[in-house]
Amino acid sequence: MKKFSCILLCVCLFSVLVTPKVRAVDGAISAKSYILIEATTERVIDSKNEQLQIPVASTTKIMTALITLEQKGLDSLFIVDANAIKVEGSSMGLREGDKASFFALANGMLLSSGNDSANAAAVKISGSIPKFAELMNKRAKELGMDNSNFVTPSGLHDEQHYSTAYDMALLAKAAIQNERFLSICSKSKAKVEFGNPPFTRYLANHNRLVKEYSGCIGVKTGFTKKAGRCLVSAATRDGVTLICVTLNASNDWQDHTRLLDYGFSVVKPIEITASYENIRLNVVGSQDKSVAVMPLDKTYASVSQNDKLTQEIYADKFYYAPINKGDIVGEIRHLYNGNVVATTGLVAAQDVKIDIVQKEKTFLKKLKEFLSKHIR
Known about the structure:
376 residues
């Protein structure tokens, strides 16, 4: 369908959502830097030092895994680079000569936090770790991560390798929109195959919240002596998705539980209603030249009573009669700050009948033209 109209002037929201950043849990959070956002609108619910550039340890692997899962041939096997996998720290257990796929390596990064899997994927994709770091930084700029710089695919310490809680929240939002990424990081364990020859292994997720916090769907843990404990989490309840990032935290599990609990207590889905009286779609083949529309379903979004939303309608330039009341004729998308916060179908609000007289005239005209050409 083609977009033919934008912006409805009348939008009403019902219920109340606490929207300002309120540090309701300040003092109870151990993290040096943290942020809690609503994923759809990127609204900041609570934060502290969220723009502070500091090490992020293995939460770096969110970026590495996302890029890996954006490659073609995710399930194709290849021999991992022998030098790439010779790296300190956590490992998924790769050995020289092992065969693995990008998908298996992504599992190794997100579940086992394998530095070996991150390096192996990086070298396979870009040819070298420095070249892959360039790709990471390019992707970061595309995501609006303006205060980040990546040097290693694993997150091992480097003075020039850093990010912010805010930037990591943006990265997490993009990552969980990738279906295969989400399918990995939301599991407590996974079955993968790699080796020489490949055989089945089971990898456990280091992220305790996947098991312990209701609605948790990921995302990634991290730790180095320089970075301290780092954690990026996402959770969904009643149509609301929150993303939480804590960096350099002594009690990250408790921090995330408190922050997410607070977030879900103040962020609620709100019903969006709009006036459709002035929206009509063009019709051909009827005495009615247009058809009125109405939404297919009730529409909800995690926005505020005072938020200004814009709307975009996607529909064909015209529709042929007949049209029955209830036929789907388009789609309406509600946007906040350019982000789509809710979508629903548009349906015909009335029956539109064929113009029989015009149809007969058209038929007779075509018949006359045919006869004039073929009968002398």
